[in-house]
Amino acid sequence: MNLLTRVWAASLLTLLAASWRLWLPDWNWLSESGWTSDFPRVAMFAINPALTPLVELLGLTTLLGGLLATASRRRPRAVELGCVVVGLTALWVTNQHRLQPWAYQGWLYAAVFALASPPQAKRALTVLTISVYAYSSLGKFDQQFLRTVGPDFVRVLMPWLTPDATTGRFGIAESAVLTLPLAELSIAVLLTIPRTRRWGGFAAITMHLLLLLVLGPLGLGHSTAVLIWNLFLAVQAWLLFVRRPHESASPGEATAAVADRSSPPPLEPKPESATDPLAIYRRYAVTLIVITAVALPLGERPPAGRTDGHWDHWLSWALYSPHTSRVEIEIHGSQLDSLPAEAVRHSRVGRDDDGWHELRIDRWSLAELAVPVYPQARFQLGIAQKIAAQLESPAAIRVKIRGVSNRRSGQRHETWLLGANEINQATRHYWLLPKP
User: Which one-letter DSSP state was computed for residue 354?
Assistant: First the structure.
């Protein structure tokens, strides 16, 4: 597990470097020098603006210090892993956009590595990984995926297929789209059964390598961070499920193991949990973290009468699943000069050509922060609130909230908000948004 911990820390450092502008503190001199982005920062709670840069600086320093120390040690220590947990938490509070799925996974891993013994850590990571594949696959049994993202994947994997000229459909090839979530669900099942776990590891590696092809520059051209994360998940599958235990031991560890087997066992050995109360609490803490992380995604889909679920899409491993809630932001053309230049560059004339311009925050995020925009109506409504505060006229903005799509029909519940006042009123329905 020490090797996996170091690989994880190095991978998380690489992911932070690939999206570095997302993590920099909100300092004026950094903004004036062009280092930071004008993309709105949406905090979870109302924070004194004078304290925000300090919180972010301490969070980033603590996070980087913990990761660098963990990646450089043969036996990472709990205090350094705890720094990763604290640093990520602080940075999330000041900007929800940093709740990237790989950052959330990193938080869970840091907590497990800090609290668990190696055997318990391996069991915990196995359960967490199975839940990622299971929830990710179930989220793709959805009309939105089967009609949009799924066919895009199939076009890259099977470029010789062409749609029908009249219907635009792929005919029999549409069945290939359904095999994508079925294959991912099969991996989760294989990893659940101990006898087939190694085969599940090989299948997971194959899937992530294919995703590198589909999402890479020769395919759909997704962000670098997405590619790095898939590469880490492939390496993790090898270390966690495929590699034999004796293969991960160094020559010195192997010699010590042989010596231990040749010497007689101590009389009446007592397990650590029986003699160390702290070990009992740490084991219970790890169990609670894993159970909570596995159970919360059950609340991702909204209950009847609601447009949003009770848990965020990315934190429920809704990956490459376009069923997520979202907000479409439109600015009147007379107020475009009030926006940052990069925002104007990623706006376009609305469909009705009535003077309103659609602000494409997804492209703005990729261009400036090198990460996809956080796919949650709550967060994107917070962006609209920040933009509305920059406009001279409070009536020059309107947004359309689009709820989670229906799994069978693909339809969404839509709500229009006209002007800054209605946007501010809508933010009061969410816990994790600063209230005006």
Answer: S
Q: Distances in Å between the alpha carbon of 392 and those of 41, 79, 172, 199, 383? A: 20, 49, 54, 60, 17
Q: How many domains, in total, are found in the chain?
A: 2
Q: Is residue 72 part of a domain?
A: yes
Q: How far apart are CA 20 and CA 340, in angstroms?
A: 20
Q: With beta carbons less than 8 A apart as the criterion, state whether 35 and 424 touch.
A: no
The helix/strand/coil state of 108 is helix
The pTM (predicted TM-score) of the whole model is: 0.90
At residue 244, the pLDDT reads 82
156: in domain: yes
Q: In this structure, are residues 131 and 317 in contact, taking their beta carbons and an 8 Å threshold?
A: yes
Q: Radius of gyration of the chain from Cα atoms?
A: 24
DSSP three-state, residue 326? strand
pLDDT in tens, 155-206: 888 877 655 443 445 455 567 788 999 999 999 999 999 999 999 999 999 9
Q: According to the 3-state scheme, what is the secondary structure of 233-274?
A: HHHHHHHHHHCCHHHHCCHHHHHHHHHHHHCCCCCCCCCHHH
* Chain-centre distance for alpha carbon 36: 21
- Per DSSP, the three-state class of 331 is strand
Q: Which amino acid is at 194?
A: P
Spatial separation of the C-alpha atoms in residues 42 and 22, rounded to whole Å: 12
Would the pLDDT of 307 be above 90? Answer: no
Cβ contacts of 125 within 8 Å, gap of 6 or more: 4, 109, 112, 236, 240
Question: Domain check: are 287 and 386 in the same one?
Answer: no
CA quadruple 176, 182, 188, 194: dihedral positive or negative? negative
Look at residue 334 and give its three-state secondary structure.
helix
Average pLDDT, the chain: 88
**Cβ-based neighbour number of residue 156 at 10 Å:** 15
User: pLDDT for 42-60, tens place per residue?
Assistant: 999 988 888 999 999 999 9
Same domain, 94 and 201: yes
Residues 396 and 265 in one domain: no
A 10 A CB-CB count for 206 gives 14
d(CA 227, CA 230): 5
Q: Please list the alpha-helical segments (H only) found in 45-94.
A: 52-72, 78-94
Residues 381, 260 share a domain: no
| Residue 418 DSSP SS3 | strand
Residue holding tokens 């967060």?
379
Distances (CA, A) of 149 to 153, 189, 304, 314, 359: 6, 24, 26, 16, 22
Q: 346 lies in which domain range?
A: 325-427
